[in-house]
Amino acid sequence: MAIRKIVERGDPILEKKCRLVTDFNTRLHTLLDDMAETLEESGGIGLAAPQVGILRRVCIVEDSEGEIIELINPEIIFEEGEQTGLEGCLSIPGRFGIVTRPYTVRVRAQDRFGDEFEIEDEDLTARCLCHEIEHLDGHLYTEHCDHLLTDEEVEQYIKDHPEQFEEDE
Ligand code: NI
Fold first, then answer.
1. How far from 10 is each of 100, 136, 138, CA to CA, in Å?
2. Can you tell me the mean pLDDT for 74-102?
3. 169 has a pLDDT exceeding 60
4. Which domains does the chain have, with CATH numbers?
5. Which pLDDT does position 168 carry in this prediction?
6. Distance, CA 91 to ligand 1 centroid (Å)?
7. Of the candidates 117, 132, 165, which has an alpha carbon nearest to the alpha carbon of residue 58?
8. What's the pLDDT at 1?
9. What distance in Å separates the CA atoms of residue 26 and residue 18, rounded to the nearest whole number?
């Protein structure tokens, strides 16, 4: 496994539409393993292939149990409810915006061997699924917020919404 360099906002690769994965080969498996290692090192909870310079429909999301979900060719097939909260992106380090997302999403995807599966999740994991899947169509969360917060605004937001920042055991 290897840590890959994360592409930052401003690089046109983050604005491109990714291609479907059709070969579930060792090259894909290496990409997924490298993305997991890169994500772990970065301290984030989700990473999409274009963020490491690969224009394929691949992303990974860490769920509330700390498990990495690998999603190939993912599609959101159901969404319900609403949540509003702070959102960041490894390609926009140190910055946050306030973004509204569905509270629950159901996603259909393929695993690293090409087998189709569905998952449903909520809250932060649902937010992360929406965020990562959007990356595959060249979209960033900044499209959903009017501005990126200043450090003072982030501090104030955390102070005003302590319930959103409770640590899960
Ligand atoms: Ni991102």
1. 23, 16, 12
2. 97
3. no
4. 12-162 (3.90.45.10)
5. 54
6. 6
7. 132
8. 80
9. 19
Which of 70, 87, 132, 134 is catalytic? The answer is: 132
Distance in Å, CA 135 to ligand 1 centroid: 7
Is residue 101 within 8 Å of 124, Cβ to Cβ? Answer: no
Q: Which two tokens stand for residue 36?
A: 């997991």
28: its two tokens: 């894909």
Residue 132 designated active-site? yes
What spacing in Å lies between the alpha carbon of 9 and ligand 1's midpoint? 10
> Three-class SS string for 111-160?
CCCCCEEEEEEEHHHHHHHHHHHHHCCCCCHHHHCCCCCCHHHHHHHHHH
CA–CA distance, 145 with 148 (Å, rounded to integer): 7
Reported as a single tens digit per residue, the pLDDT across 30-50 is 999 999 999 999 999 999 999
Å from CA of 94 to ligand 1 middle: 12
The pLDDT > 90 percentage for the chain reads: 94
pLDDT score recorded for residue 167: 63
How many Å lie between the centroid of ligand 1 and the Cα of residue 136? 10
| pLDDT tens-digit readout, 10-22 | 999 999 999 999 9
Percent helix / strand / coil, the chain, rounded to 5: 35, 30, 40
